[in-house]
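<instruction>
Derive structure tokens from the sequence
<entry> Chain with its tokenised backbone below:
===
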Amino acid sequence: MEKKLMLIVNPAAGRGSYKLNFGEALHVLDKGGFRTTLFFTSGREDATRFAREHAGEYDTVACVGGDGTLSEVISGLMQIKNPPPVGYFPMGTTNDVATTLGLPKNDTAGAARRIVYGSPHPFDIGGFGDSQYFAYIAAFGAFTEVSYATPQNQKKALGHLAYVLQGAAQLSKIEKVHARVEYDDGVIEGDYLYGSMSNSTSVAGILHLPEELVGLGDGMSELVLVKNPVNIEDLGDIAASVLTQRYDSGGLLVLHTKKARFLFDKPVAWTRDGEAGGEVQDISLCNYQAAVNFIF
């Protein structure tokens, strides 16, 4: 039986490389029983609006773009009842969600085959404040500004190297943030270089959480806090934890929680799925269990 697919395309993602085998991808979808309708974005929030206004008319919604495009689509789906399953053609620079789901990157034909032959799996979505969402991570602190501070023309020209260069430029700007964090199992307070709530095994292509630690549809988010090192030994301990993926040190905490409230001494800049999330001094985050189903 023919199925209707809504395919939202960000033509700027992946430096436009989706065009290389896009015809083959559409052929794969057609042979797989999908009647595809294309929606092209031309600016921010277009993907959210398309998903919110039209997703209910389709059996499946998919997007071609990076994690930012996917995040916009998810935000739109969270505003409708019973959203359809979600497919993803990862064409961005970092693609943390694709890494977590094991999806082929920058390969539209391969991603199309996953939609045709894959199956839907429950996936938790994060809530940021009263009416905003994130597909896989909300974060503050060191290097979280990199993805949206990097100029778009550099992203297109240099790809992942642009993030590396921008991150190196921020080394001298890293400042500790004092925070009180209230979560399911208690309260923790201290000075931190970084903090996040996520549902991903890959964070900015730098921090990798073990698969057995992350349940994508279990209703629990991973709360990650990196303490401010007070000496060189502390810094070495944190670096070793990241490199060896052992998260039992005193400097790097990984906790599981359904919700968390962050209180700061002053407004702190956040990112949501690699895009600017605004500055807040008191913010509550939560986990919407199995809010969408990803096809992979």
